[in-house]
Amino acid sequence: MANSPFNNYLVRLKSASTLLGLSNKEFKTLSTPNNVFEKEIEIERDNGQIESLKAYRVQFNNARGPYKGGIRFHPKANLNEVKALALGMAVKCAVVGIPMGGGKGGVEFDPKQYSPKEIEAISRAWMRAFAEHVGSKKDIPAPDVYTNGAIMSFMLDEYEKIVGYSDPGMITGKPLSLGGSLGRDTATAQGGVYILEELVNTLGLRRKDLRVAVQGFGNAGYHAASILHGLGYRIVGLSDSKGGIWSARGLDPEEVNAVKEERNAVTEFYCKGTVCDMDKLMHDEAKIYSEKDFVTCPCDILIPAALDNAIDAKNAKNVKAKIILELANDPTTPEADLILAKKRAIIVPDVLANAGGVTVSYFEWAQNITGQRWTEEEVRDKLKPIMLKAFESVWRLSKEKKLTLRNSAYFVAVEKIATAMRDRGSFL
Ligand code: NAD
Prior knowledge:
There is one protein chain. This protein is α/β, with parallel strands linked by helices. Among the domains are: 132 residues, Rossmann fold (3-Layer(aba) Sandwich), CATH 3.40.50; 162 residues, NAD(P)-binding Rossmann-like Domain (Rossmann fold, 3-Layer(aba) Sandwich), CATH 3.40.50. It contains 14 helices and 14 strands. Strands 11-8-7-6-12-13-14 form a 7-stranded mixed beta sheet, sandwiched between helices. Strands 1-2-4-3-5 form a 5-stranded mixed beta sheet, sandwiched between helices. Strands 9-10 form a two-stranded antiparallel ribbon. Helix 1 runs parallel beside helix 3. The chain starts with a helix and ends with a helix. Nicotinamide-adenine-dinucleotide binds next to helix 7 and strand 7.
C-alpha cells in the first residue's frame, strides 16, 4: 500500500480486524467513514480580495459516542489526511475507554501568511459551513496543528449565534473564560509521561540511567521534556523545525525554552544563526543536528512530538532509542515499524501515548454539559487511572498474543468499536 496517511492507519486497522476475525464486510463497514464533508469557504482578505479555501470535516465513527476530533489549519491539510486522523481519533478514544467516536477537520491554507483578522474570518466561515453537523451531542471539534483556544472561541461564538442558544460543550480546547478545562495544556504530555513511567517500572529500568530526546518543542514536546526533566530523566536532545541540539551532559528544557522564545529556534542555544559557540559546544559535549537527522541521535527514549512520518524506512535503521513514545500523531511509517521491531525497540503508539489530550478534552466536555468546574488536581487525579488502565490492558494483551504495542492497542480499540457496532446492528 502507498504511504498515504489514511493507508498507514488502514494497514493497522486491517491487521487488528484480521486478528479479531472480522469478516471482509465488517472490515469494510468499520473502515469507511460515516460522513465526509468537503466545502469551499470564502473569506475577504485584508486587501479586499475574495478568496476561496478548501475546508473539511470527516465524521468517521460514532458507535461509542459523539464524534470527537480537532481542526487543523495547514497548507498540506487534505481529505486523505483528515480521514486518517478521524479514524485515529475513533481508535484513540476506544483505547482509553472514553465514550466518544472519531472525527477531524481542516482548512487547507498557510496560517503564517494570514493576518489575525483573516484567521478569525476563516474560523467563523468554517463554522458556518459545518454548523449543522456539529454540537455537544453530535460532533465536538477541538484545536489541532495551528489552531488554538482563540480560534475555538470564535468558532463557539459563531455556532451559538447560528443555533441561538448556549452550548459550550460543542467544542473543546476553549480558554478558561468560556468553559475550558484546567490541565488541558499539559494533558497530552502528562498522559504520555504516566505511561512512560509505568513502562520504565515494568521493564525494571531506572530514570537516572535513561537519556531522553524530544523531537518538536511545541505544546506536547516542551511539556514532556519539562515534566521528565523534573522527574530526573536526563534530557539529552531537543529539536524544532529548524534543527536539533544534543548534549551528553544533558539539557535543561527551561533554559532552552527561554532561548527559543527569544530567538525562535532551539539551535540558538548553541549558535547565533550559522555561527556556533564552539567552547560551549565542547564544554557540554554537544552537537547540532539537522531537523531530519535528529531522530537518530544517541538516546534511550525518543519522543517524536512534531509531525507525521518523522521515522521512516530511510532513518529507522539509524534510530538508537530502545523506547519510542509517540506523542505526535502517526510519526512512524509502517515500514519503519517493521525495522524498529527487528531492532527490538518498544514503540508506545500514538493512539495510547498521546491520548491524554483527548481524555482531558472529554473532561472539558463533561464539565460543560454538567455545569461543573474541576480543579487542576481533580483533572490530574482522573487522568492518571485512565492512562494506566489503558496501558495495562494494551501491555497485557501484547504479552498474551505476542503483539507489538501498536497492534495490541488497535486490537483493544477495534474490539470495543466492533462490539458497539455489532450491538447497534451496524454490521447487518
Ligand atoms: P505545536 O504546533 O505546539 O508544536 C509542534 C512543534 O513541532 C513545534 O516546535 C515545531 O517547531 C516542531 N516541528 C515542526 N516540524 C518539525 C520537524 N520537521 N522537526 C522537528 N520539529 C518540528 O504542536 P503540538 O500541539 O505540540 O502537536 C505536536 C504533535 O502532537 C502533532 O502531531 C499533534 O497532532 C500531536 N498531538 C498533540 C496534542 C496536543 O494536545 N497538543 C494531542 C494529541 C496529539
